[in-house]
Amino acid sequence: MPGSIALIIWYLGTAFELGFVVCSIVRRSFVRYFFLNxxxxxxxxxxxARRFFLYSYGxxxxxxxxxxxxxxxxxxxxxxxxxxxxxxxxxxxxxxxRYIRWxxxxxxxxxxxxxxxxxxxxxxxxxxxxxxxxSQNLYFVGLVLTYILWGAVLKLRETRTRLVQFIxxxxxYFSAYAASFALxxxxxxxxxxxxxxxxxGCLLPLAWTITLWRHAExxxxxxxxxxxxxx
Length: 231
Prior knowledge:
Layout: H1 3-26, H2 34-57, H3 62-91, H4 97-120, H5 127-156, H6 161-182, H7 196-214
Helix pairs in contact: 1-2, 1-7, 2-3, 3-4, 3-5, 3-6, 4-5, 5-6, 6-7
């Protein structure tokens, strides 16, 4: 990976993540979107930890590999929880929050067991492989759940601007990451593909920060902008 470009992307991603947290505090929305802020706080901590292990032990060291894959699994879990919190916002008025939490927990456990079962069939049962498998599977689950949530937004005619744009940005983010996993086998041939995942990591906090800053909590979208009107 080109070092200078990767470093610029890292600085931008860190700045955008911090920007969302600061914007949440300024807009007095930190508690309301606590799990979104928690995800970015963990992302900031993970980013600093990876840099420490990278500069201390080198990119090919076992210490850096463990730090990278385990922080990646932790961040994926945190983003999964953030997605579930968006479900709670959409279905909160229908009093489905309790069922959503239990369903999310069961789905998370099922994904973890499936990931472990896949690795049990392998001759090399590395703990880092489990973290990678879990992250990839949770990204796929998150992608499906985000599109299901978007279907619910259309069905329920949800019009809260912040919530709608948070979900849209998350859908684009999950889709881009799924594409980056699918193209991972080409990374050795085209180094530009190695920049795809970290670049996508910059877009989510940027999109969410813009949404949080531009729109008030009570801002609403026109229903016609979400649901096509038959002619």
